[in-house]
Amino acid sequence: MELGIKGKRALVLASSRGLGRGIAVALAREGADVLLCGRKTDELSANCAAINAEGNGRASFARADLFESDVVETLVAAVAEKLGGLDILVNNSGGPTPGSSEDMTAELLETYFNAMVLRLITLTNRFVPQMKEQRWGRILTVASSGVIEPIPGLALSNTLRPALAGWSKTLANEVAQYGVTSNLLLPGSIFTDRLKSLDAAAAQRSGKSVDEVKAESEQAIPARRYGTVEEFAATAAFLCSQPASYVTGSIIRCDGGAARSV
C-alpha cells in the first residue's frame, strides 16, 4: 500500500530506542523526513545514520528530555530549524517506574504527569494551528494497553495514560474538519527493553526466572507470543498515512488480542 507520506515532515518523541525508534524508521522508509529526539545523543546519531543510509526519508535529531521544563521550546525550535514545519507528530514517552497505588507519592505523580501528559499536550498545541492551516496533519499518541485494562504493578501508568485517551478524542473532534486526525495507539506486550525490564521486575517479585515469566506472559496472549517493534511500527505508520484520513478519535490496540474487553 502506498502510504502517501513521502516528503511529509514528522517528529517522533522518545525515539532513541524501542517503539519510538521503530516508528521513526517505519516513517522514513515511506519517504518521510523524520526528526528523532531523546536523551541519548549517541543512540540518536546512530539511528539517523542508519536511516539515512537506507536512502528513503531523511533523518535528523535533537536532544530533548520530557522531564525538563523547557523541552517544548527545545522541540519547537528544532522542528523549525531542521524540518521547517510539521505534518506528523508522534507523541511517545517512556513508561514510569513500576509500583502499586500506595507507592504513588505526590512528587511521583507530579513528575510523571508533567513528562507523560502535560508536555505532550502542550507540544501538540504548538503544532495544531499549522496543521489546521495547511489542512493536513496526523497526531498519533502512543499510550499503553493499561488505558483499557489496568496492568498489575503499573499503577502510575494506569493512572496517567488514560488522561491521554480523553484528550486525544476531544482533540480529534475539534480538528477533523481541517483534515487533521488524532488517534491513540496502545501497545500490548511488544518485545522492547522496557518489556524486558518489566519481566525482570516481575521475576524478582515472584521468585521465578525471567524465562518463566516471559513464557507465562506469552501463554496469556491469544497470539501466544510477544509482538515485534516492526509490527507495532507498521500500525503506527498506517495511522500517520494518507489512506488513514478517515480514522480519527480512535483507540487502536496492537496487542495480539491480549486485552479481554470488547
From TrEMBL:
Organism: Mycoplana ramosa (Mycoplana bullata)
Superkingdom field: Bacteria
Gene3D superfamilies: NAD(P)-binding Rossmann-like Domain
Protein name, UniProt field: SDR family oxidoreductase
Pfam families from the UniProt entry: adh_short_C2
Range of residues in the leader sequence: none
InterPro entries, per database record: NAD(P)-bd_dom_sf, SDR, SDR_fam
Stored CDD domains: BKR_like_SDR_like
